[in-house]
Structures are given as C-alpha cells and as structure tokens.
Amino acid sequence: MTSSTKRRFLPRLACLGIAAATVASFAAGEPSAGEREGEPLAARSHDFRAAYEAYLAASSDGRHGEAATHAEQVRRLGETLFAGDGRRLATLAYNHGHALSKASRYGDAYDVLKDARKLMRDAHGEDAPELAQVEIALVTAAPLSAVRKHLRRAERIARLHDLDESASIAHAQLMVGMRIGGRQGLRLLEEATTAFEGLDDADGLALGNYWLGKIRAKHGWGDAAGHFEATLAHARRGEADRPAVRSLVLMAHRSLVTVLEESGLRDEATKHCLAIGRLTSSGGTSGLQALYKQAPTYPASAWRQRIEGWVQMEFDVDESGFVRDAKVVESDGGVGFETAALEAVRGFRYAPRFVDGEAVASPGVRNLIKFEIKEG
Question: Which of 215, 273, 330, 349 could form a disulfide with 312 if both were Cys (CB 3.0 to 4.6 A apart)?
C-alpha cells in the first residue's frame, strides 16, 4: 500500500489541547486530589492553564529551555488534577520529554520519554498507534547505542496500524544522523533525504543535504560541494525568508567557501563570498567577515629550537574577498615567522563589505598571527 493510501495518525501530543476540557471535567463534579487536600480546585485549574499557555508560548518562540521548565510544571500540576486519567498523564509526560529533547537535554528527555511510553502502553495498549510518535521522540533523545532500536519500533508500529509516519521517521533519522555523524550517520541521512524526496519536503532536503555535505567534507567521502549546492537549491524552493532557512543558507555558503578554497578553486568560491556579504548586510552596510583562514606553517628551525613568536599583518581585502598587498607591520621571533605569516594570509578569504548594495574593498585590515608550541 502506498503512503498516499495510508492512514495518517495525528496524536495530540506536542500540541495538547486539554485546557478547555479541564474545566468541563471538573464542572461534572469529579473530585480531585487538590480538593481532597483542601486546595481550591479553581486555583489549581487556573495554575495549570497558565503554565500550559506559557509552555505553548515558549515552544512557539523557540525558547526551548523555558518550554521544558513550563512543561515540567504542567506535568506536575496535571498529575494532581488528572489522577487516574492515564491518557492525559501519558500525554503530559510526552510533552515534558519532547520539550527537554528540544532543549538538548537528551539524558533527561530519554528518562522522561521512557516514562511516557510506559504510561502510553498502560493507557492504550502494548502496540497502540499512539506509541509510534513516542518511539520517534525516543529516537531523537536516545543514547547512540539505542537509536536503531527505537527507530525499528516506530517503523513496526506504523506498519502494524497502516500509519503514514514517513515524514516523522525521516525527521527522526535526520536528527540522529546529525548527532552521530560517521558512516552510520551518513546512512541515516541518506535514508532521510530519500524519504524527503518522496514527500517533496524542501526544508527537509535542504537540511539533509547540508549534513550529508558536512560529514563528507569532514571525512573526504565524495562530493561534499554537491550536497551544499543542493542545500541552496532546496532552500530556495522553501520559505527562504524564515530565520532558520536563512541561517542554513549562510552555513551552506560558508561550507562551500571552505571546500572550494581547500580544493584550490578560489575563483569558484567568489560567488559564495559575495552571497554571504550580501545576505548579512544591514542598513546598506555590513562588516568584514573572515570565511577561510589556513593555519600558517610553523618554521622548522624555530620548531626544533622551541622558539615561539608572533606577526602583526596588515593587508587590503578587495571587492571579491581576496587578500591584497599583505605586509608585516611588526613581529617577534625572527624572519621565518614573517615569511610563514605572509604565505598564510595570502590564502585567507573574506566576505566583502557591502555599502548601498555594492561590494567594496576594505583597506588596512590587521591580523595578529601567533606561533605557539602546544605540548601534548
């Protein structure tokens, strides 16, 4: 059966909508633990709603640390308000674990999400469809040794109930591939991008290709530049004005500058230097940004004699981000350091400044290069 004919399961987990239901259930006269302890029910219900609204607002604004704090408060209040309501308690635990994961508190998130899974199983059954999303959340928070286990469980539950969880699973693979890197991360990212192609998910394809490029560049595994170019192409198809997409575009341009400079393709890197300068201009003018700096070669004689030194360089940066007319202003340690520093700065690359929409040269740029011997 194709994904288009599968049933899409949309549990009310990350966007729990029970604040209004809270009042209705209490209006029915069902006593709560808060009432039995003498605390007014209306006050406790009000605290729950306020904490829940704060959680939603923080989540929406990307304030993940605050969201996790509010989600824990919501969960604790809910444990009193909804004692005995396993489904609601499971959902509140899931929200708490999900928020912790978004805040990159993976160890805490994993423990809370395992509690949520137990509550879900108790409330809905061992292989209930609600558990698919919980297992996917566990994929993101799990230690690396457990990632594959939770991913297989999510896929098995999705198949069992004929759920279309391909998008959620692809995003879980993406997040884990980013975390673990290496060959295993590469495989997960390749699986994710294949799924994103089928879903025509431009954002997913942009991010997946970016991380494929990062891993390949780091290890020298194939065409990293091609993945970064794909990132830019897919980002243009998506909502390019969103801050997250804009940030990804800048990172892809930066990565392409590095890859092309290291391959000796300096002229091909120029368009990316210009793109970064243009994208980061503010009010018609942007500051000069260093994009690529190769480390100087330590002079062999100085190394053998354990001599350290420094060189103060001055140079111009032209409209394409190349270094021109480099010279030594001051130095300490000998002429060998000066020669090495000159050679290094000539290979630096910058995003040029933009004034009134046009790239301009930047004269008199200074850079201090230190030559230090680090033991061990």
Answer: 330
